[in-house]
UniProtKB/TrEMBL annotation:
SUPFAM superfamilies: PUA domain-like (SSF88697). This is G2866 protein. Residues 31-186 form the EVE domain. The gene is g2866. Pfam families: EVE (PF01878). InterPro entries: 5hmC_binding, EVE_domain, PUA-like_sf.
Amino acid sequence: MQQSRSQLSLAPSSIAQSVSAHSTDQLASHAYWLFKKDVEHFSIESLEERGRKREVLWTGVRDSTDAANAKAIRCEDPILLCTTGADAVISGILEATSDPIPDATAWDAQFSRRHWVTPPDKLDPGCSIGYNPYWAVRVQLVATFERAISLRALSEHPAWQGADVWDVDRMLIPVSEEQWDVVIDMAADMRSAPSAHV
């Protein structure tokens, strides 16, 4: 398996270590993901303000397909952070620091008001402590791109054409290793070319 030339500097620590050790088995054990949030509710800056090692609980996933994906995430899986708004951009890399846990913001209003990642309007009246089909995962920020990569720029690459990321209702999306490498390489190219703009 050929590795992206920039993975060592931009990928999460667990992935970088396995690349340096040439352990394709360890790399293959990880799934790649893209998490989306509205920039008004969540941003790379909000994570940086809390410190690069500060863990946050990623909550509020309510789409049934996304909820199934959330349940499949495992600790140390690498994640692309995409914020939506006037322009949807990928601005950095997160890493899952836990396996999935039940998402209490689906039924606990007080927890939802205290929890900064998910606004209180994500309560589901059908949920309770005894029944909750939604999942959350702890994540931490491990890398920030010097320049954010717009989804419009990604749409020009064949690997990203037809991807689920273009569905505005989807917020937690699996990505292929090829799609991951495209983003990492674009981030490295932008870092080495100050005049470039994406």
